[in-house]
Amino acid sequence: MNILEIILKLVLAVALGGLIGIERETSQKPAGFRTNILVCIGSAMMMSMAVGLIQGSNATPDTLVRMAAGVVTGIGFLGAGTIIHARGMVIGLTTASTLWVVAGLGLLVGVGYYIPALILTALIIATLVAFRKIEEIYLRKHIFHYHLKFKEQPDLLSKLRKVSFHHGIKLERLSIKKEGESLVISFSAVGSEEKEQEFNEALMSLGQLEEFRID
Question: Where are the domains of the chain?
Answer without folding.
Answer: 3-137, 142-214
